[in-house]
User: What shape does this take?
Amino acid sequence: MADPTDPTDPTAADPGAPDPGATPVTLDHLEVNEVRDGLIVYDATRDRVHYLNATAAVVFTLCDGEHRADAMAGEVGALFGVDPPRAEVADCLADLAAEGLLR
Assistant: This one.
């Protein structure tokens, strides 16, 4: 049986991974500007600028409170014509949350 508190247990859930059933939402106060190959996101309350590449920009845009985290990979895969990048989308969501861009 997996021990979620044991970082050496490969079957333990990643504590930074998003809840697959969650419907992530971006923070309301962010300034978002589209650029040629992604998004520039400015958080005025923290005076931080974030550059999101094309894939991260799609994931960020899907964080509207209506898309489940576990379904986002399918949408990203369909958009780019690849198999659903589940691990990459989960990592992206965890990074967006760690950067304080999601609630």
